[in-house]
Amino acid sequence: MKPTSNKYLLDPQYAQALDAEDRLARFRQEFVIDDPGLIYLDGNSLGRLPRRSRVLIQDYVDRQWGQRLIRGWGEGWLELAQHIGDKIAGLVGAQPGEVVVAESTSTNLFKLAVAALKARPGRSKIVTDDLNFPSDLYIFQGIVELLGGGHRLEIVSSPDGIHGPLEGLAAAIDDDTALVSLSHTAFKSAYTYDMAAVTALAHRAGALTLWDLSHSAGAVPVDLNGANADLAVGCSYKYLNGGPGAPAFLYVRRDLQASLRNPISGWYSQAAPFDFGLEYQPAAGLRRMLTGTPPVLALAAIEPGIDLLLAAGMDHLRAKSVQQSEYLIALVDAVLQPLGFQLNSPRDAARRGSHISIGHPEGWRINRALIEQQQVLPDFRAPDNIRLGITPLYTTFDEIRQAVQRLRAVVEERRYEQYSLERSAVT
């Protein structure tokens, strides 16, 4: 259903008609929404709480931990990281045994990056771009220092701060490149790379690829096997709805698993951990990339959100995401652009994730007014980006319409002028 003119974009009946046609609408009731007046557009940073997670965690606390005690390790806890990893594999185009849940995204990135560099001796370069998540760059900088300065990080600049620098990457990837590591979907602009094309470019030069899927998993179709990707990491608290600070996941293509060495060789990756031998022997398969004992309660909370995504189906989720982001962009063009906003995300849906960034010189103060006065909860990323996250499992078309109306009111009524330019610790 498309509006015949711009005046219909803000028509409640138009947005409500789109919601009535939404085949995924029933999934909204699967989430805790205790304030119906709040428009939540930050699921790309922290997903909503699935109702099933409450029930599951209560069972883990009261029965499994409370009653079964240490027997729980033999009743499913020990296999939980791989069990949930196999489910995530179904969302990112991998096979069972190629994805496991472990530690944080940063820790997993460190482990896989060091393993990749060790697997490419004689090559010194890590290639990335300036759209990558800054903490990934911090990890690479630390690795270069830790390994004694024999490696270097080359950061290729985006031509416009929105789109990936494909030509620059092609020029940077050469026979001295050991690793190419990028965010599949950029955290600011939502630009999404053609994973297969970039992976092929790296492989032609003999380099390995390491993808950060934190803003893709559960939002954008990912085909790790189809792209012949080598390595990947991702978090579980955004579109996977695993809870604040939930454990992350890592992927290693099956044919690489035996040849990579985990640089943080903890007891959980030991071949026979309960033999308590003094010499480390890595486990077979992906378990060799684990490190320490998993946080069982936090790990368990990830599964209900993944089950909902699998039930909805990534094709349906993506179709709704594109439809909603196109609707939002049409509203930005018609309603917000005349007020000084600009679109800071790609217009091409094939190269765009599930959040939309809009820029405004007063972006920070507008964001504060939205949260504190208008019951709209997006987030802000410097220098001027207000990120509007679309999570198809629970975002409605009418919420998008109302959010834009409230944004317009904040600017037209200059409500943002009540707020300081000083930024808070969390944006």
The best one-word shape is globular
> What is the residue-averaged pLDDT?
96
The tally of beta strands, per DSSP, is 13
What number of structural domains do the residues give?
A: 2
- The total count of helices amounts to 12
Strand content: 5-15%
CATH architecture of the largest domain: 3-Layer(aba) Sandwich
Distance between the termini: 35 Å
CATH superfamily (homologous) name of the largest domain: Type I PLP-dependent aspartate aminotransferase-like (Major domain)
Structural class: alpha/beta
Protein model, in words:
This protein has 427 residues and is of the alpha/beta class. It has 2 domains: 6-30 and 314-418, Aspartate Aminotransferase, domain 1 (Alpha-Beta Complex); 54-310, 3-Layer(aba) Sandwich (Aspartate Aminotransferase, domain 2), CATH 3.40.640. It has helices spanning 12-20, 51-68, 80-92, 105-118, 134-146, 166-172, 195-204, 296-300, 303-312, 314-336, 363-373, 397-412; strands at 39-40, 99-101, 125-129, 152-156, 177-183, 208-212, 231-234, 249-252, 342-343, 355-359, 376-377, 379-381, 385-389. The strands form 3 sheets. Strands 2-8-7-6-5-3-4 form a 7-stranded mixed β-sheet, with helices on both faces. Strands 9-10-13-12 form a 4-stranded antiparallel β-sheet. Strand 12 and strand 13 form a beta hairpin. The longest helix is centred in the last third of the chain and has 23 residues, at 314-336. The protein is globular. The mean pLDDT is 96.
